[in-house]
Amino acid sequence: VIGNTCTSNSNFGLNVVNGEIVYVAGCVIVFYDPHQDKQTRFLTSPSNKAFSSISISDNGKFLAAGEVRKK
Description:
This protein has 71 residues and is an all-beta fold. It is 0% helix and 45% strand. A four-stranded antiparallel beta sheet has the order 1-2-3-4, with no helix packed on it. It is globular and about 40 Å long. 8% of the residues are buried. The mean pLDDT is 86.
């Protein structure tokens, strides 16, 4: 994935356990490992709607994501 669609801090997360950076790129959530300097995983929206926010739990085991709602 090239680029991102982060427009606020709700589109960006940091796993404090392993240092992994998580960010939104449209309907894809990208996991980036700065230690390896590469993207390691991707999650896509099953409905192909853009993600509007993400949050990672303090222990790094859970990721919550919200999609953009059509009006």
